[in-house]
């Protein structure tokens, strides 16, 4: 680690070791290792480390008046761009062989965004529930680089201004900005969680807290006992968050615990040796930390491509496949660090800033031009026969705009509008559940226009009473309102319950059915949709392209059939009407793939296209 003016900083191997504690949970989380279900917090740890190191490098030179903004950006470019653009090039080549034309068009936009350091902004606009899943976006992980690069654009300017205007109040000003950023992020996360997650202003505090640590705002801890207590507490906080948090953990906890944990480890280590510092300074920990940037860069495209092609994780025993993809990512990362990162930093370190920045601009322009070519060719549509390209277009047929109207499919409780979604009408049928229920509602409304179908649904919302311990906040609010407020006061003639059922939820259904029976409401339970391991339009497109009809049958999820039989038996035991979508889709064992000869039944692995919803609604035969 070098100061911006060329002077050396004291090297801290424990910080490189801390990088390993940041990257490994992220990779394991993305590879679906359950014991790291909160591994996403590693990105927060990275942010704190970056803020700390950048400030430690540039603050002395700013104070001494020898800081060069061009030199700073040169060093950032040499640190970030070589491995990044190598990954972008390799991923673009892989995408040509793996992604369908509509996916390729999305990839082109993400390529341009990643190359220009705005991928966090781009992906924040692609994060609705019905947008393309993360596992079809090879560059999704570059959002965090966008946050860091935007921070690097503004933070040196802040330090320069503070040094010039009020050097003695620099720490106080930065602390105030940190507090404002944290408060704003907490507030925005309540109504716009996607923006709170992706946008730099709401992540600024994570990097700036690291900066405050480098500026000595938290003092120096000289005593061995308090240093060790603080270091151990911080280390435990990171591990606790990585192993016990999950995708439903509230934003405030999901960010503050790992951030303050990482800060505690670094502040403790700045005062002297600690137990945690010695552990993090072990050679294996330091090595993983050294390759952590490349490890982060390369692991996600590899995971996406194996998922899209059905390789490794699908064709090998699942646990073995996960180990294979993580191991492969590690090897590629080590090679990237050795043959890309290190040579560029050393070989171009003496080049003048102008030459380096011109090279960076050329790489960015080339990437944007390549993205433009992909878009101009409709996602390189020439790679697929016309029929395959046409069916692949249904990957975008989610009908999400219609479902989300009036917040009837509510991603937050504030979006739901009861007066519009649940306006009481004689003989109305309420469709209640998750996104599967919302798509079924579309088909029922289209096929039976003379009947009234109301909708109350949300992402992953199971239509169960008193399900709070298992549900997202929006689901708790929605189901509490429907069962405790709306239905007792506005009895409908019929309720249809549908969701992406799991075995655990089947066992919790009887209490809900008893509640509806006590209200005198006829209930119909709709079983699971036939699912596939990969999006159905992709399977169909690949089967056409490769002339391999068996490819679709091999991608069908067998567990759904057993679950459907279990639900049918349970509902028969309870005397409740049950509709088996499995039987309607796969009569006599041969499964329907197209709803109308053109549109596939599903637009992803398990959600109905609009045509698919109408097809099944007709089969259900409501009177």
Unreliable sequence segments: 1-8, 312-317
Strand order within the widest beta sheet: 2-1-3-4-5
- Percent range for β-strand residues: under 5%
Please state the structural category: mainly alpha
- Mean pLDDT across the residues is 91
The coarse silhouette is globular
Total discrete domains: 2
Radius of gyration: 27 Å
Q: Tell me the helix content.
A: 55-70%
Largest sheet: 5 strands, parallel
| SS field, number of helical segments | 27
Distance between the termini: 73 Å
Count of beta strands: 5
Overview of this protein structure:
It is built from 27 helices and five strands. The chain is mainly α and 623 residues long. Helix 22 (503-518) links the parallel strand 3 (494-498) and strand 4. It is globular and about 80 Å long. The protein starts with 12 loop residues before the first helix and ends with a helix. Residues 1-8 and 312-317 have low confidence and may be disordered.
Question: Could you provide a short overview of the structure?
Answer:
About 65% of the residues lie in helices and about 5% in strands.
Secondary-structure map:
Layout: H1 13-30, H2 42-64, H3 69-98, H4 101-115, H5 119-124, H6 143-165, H7 170-191, H8 193-198, H9 204-214, H10 224-244, H11 251-270, H12 275-280, H13 283-290, H14 292-309, H15 318-347, H16 353-376, H17 386-392, H18 400-403, H19 418-421, E1 429-433, H20 435-447, E2 453-457, H21 473-489, E3 494-498, H22 503-518, E4 522-526, H23 536-546, H24 550-554, H25 559-574, E5 577-579, H26 581-585, H27 610-620
Helix pairs in contact: 1-2, 1-13, 1-14, 2-6, 2-9, 2-11, 3-4, 3-14, 3-15, 3-16, 4-16, 7-9, 9-11, 10-11, 14-15, 17-23, 20-27
Domain SGNH: 417-619
Domain Acyltransferase: 14-313
InterPro entries: Acyl_transf_3_dom, Acyltransferase_3, SGNH
């Amino acid at each position: 680690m070098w100061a911006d003016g060329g002077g050396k900083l004291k090297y801290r191997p424990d910080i490189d070791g801390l990088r390993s504690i940041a990257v490994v949970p992220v990779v394991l989380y993305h590879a679906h290792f359950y014991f790291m279900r909160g591994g996403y917090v590693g990105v927060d740890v990275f942010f704190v480390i970056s803020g700390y190191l950048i400030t430690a490098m540039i603050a002395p030179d700013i104070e001494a008046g020898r800081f060069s903004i061009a030199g700073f950006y040169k060093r950032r470019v040499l640190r970030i761009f070589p491995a990044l653009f190598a990954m972008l090039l390799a991923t673009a080549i892989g995408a040509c062989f793996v992604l369908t034309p509509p996916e390729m068009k999305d990839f082109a936009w993400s390529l341009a965004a990643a190359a220009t350091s705005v991928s966090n902004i781009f992906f924040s606009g692609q994060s609705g529930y019905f947008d393309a899943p993360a596992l079809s976006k090879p560059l999704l992980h570059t959002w965090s680089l966008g946050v860091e690069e935007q921070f690097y654009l503004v933070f040196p300017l802040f330090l320069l201004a503070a040094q010039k205007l009020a050097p003695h109040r620099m720490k106080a000003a930065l602390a105030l900005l940190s507090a404002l950023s944290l408060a704003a992020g907490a507030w925005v996360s309540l109504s716009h969680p996607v923006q709170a997650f992706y946008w730099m202003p709401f992540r600024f505090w994570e990097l700036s807290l690291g900066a405050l640590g480098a500026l000595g705002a938290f003092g120096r801890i000289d005593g061995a006992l308090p240093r060790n207590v603080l270091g151990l507490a911080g280390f435990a906080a990171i591990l606790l968050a990585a192993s016990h948090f999950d995708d439903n953990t509230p934003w405030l906890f999901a960010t503050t615990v790992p951030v303050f944990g990482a800060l505690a480890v670094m502040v403790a280590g700045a005062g002297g040796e600690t137990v945690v510092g010695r552990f993090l300074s072990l050679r294996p920990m330091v090595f993983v930390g050294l390759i952590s940037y490349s490890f982060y860069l390369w692991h996600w495209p590899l995971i996406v491509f194996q998922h899209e092609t059905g390789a490794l994780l699908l064709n090998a025993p699942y646990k073995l496949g996960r180990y294979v993809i993580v191991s492969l990512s590690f090897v590629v990362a080590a090679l990237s660090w050795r043959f890309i990162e290190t040579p560029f930093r050393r070989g171009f370190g003496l080049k003048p800033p102008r030459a380096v920045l011109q090279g960076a601009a050329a790489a960015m322009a080339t990437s944007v031009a390549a993205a433009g070519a992909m878009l101009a060719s409709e996602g390189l549509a020439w790679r697929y026969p016309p029929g395959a390209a046409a069916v692949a277009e249904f990957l975008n047929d989610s009908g999400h705009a219609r479902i989300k109207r009036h917040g009837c499919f509510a991603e937050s409780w504030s979006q739901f509008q009861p007066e519009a979604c649940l306006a009481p009408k004689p003989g109305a049928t309420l469709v209640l559940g998750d996104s599967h229920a919302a798509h079924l509602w579309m088909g029922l409304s289209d096929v039976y226009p003379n009947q009234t179908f109301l909708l109350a649904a949300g992402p992953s919302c199971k239509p169960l009473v008193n399900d709070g311990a298992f549900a997202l906040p929006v689901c708790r609010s929605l189901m509490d309102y429907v069962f405790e407020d709306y239905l007792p006061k506005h009895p409908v003639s019929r309720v249809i319950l549908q969701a992406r059922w799991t075995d655990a939820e089947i066992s919790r259904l009887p209490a809900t059915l008893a509640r509806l029976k006590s209200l005198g409401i006829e209930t119909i339970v709709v079983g699971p949709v036939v699912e596939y391991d990969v999006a159905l339009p992709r399977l169909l497109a690949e089967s056409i392209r490769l002339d391999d009809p068996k490819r679709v049958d091999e991608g069908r999820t067998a567990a759904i059939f057993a679950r459907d039989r279990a639900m049918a038996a349970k509902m028969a035991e309870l005397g409740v009407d049950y509709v088996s979508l499995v039987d309607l889709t796969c009569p006599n064992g041969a499964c329907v793939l197209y709803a109308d000869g053109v549109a596939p039944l599903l637009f992803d692995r398990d959600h109905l296209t609009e045509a698919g919803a109408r097809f099944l609604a007709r089969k259900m035969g409501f009177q």
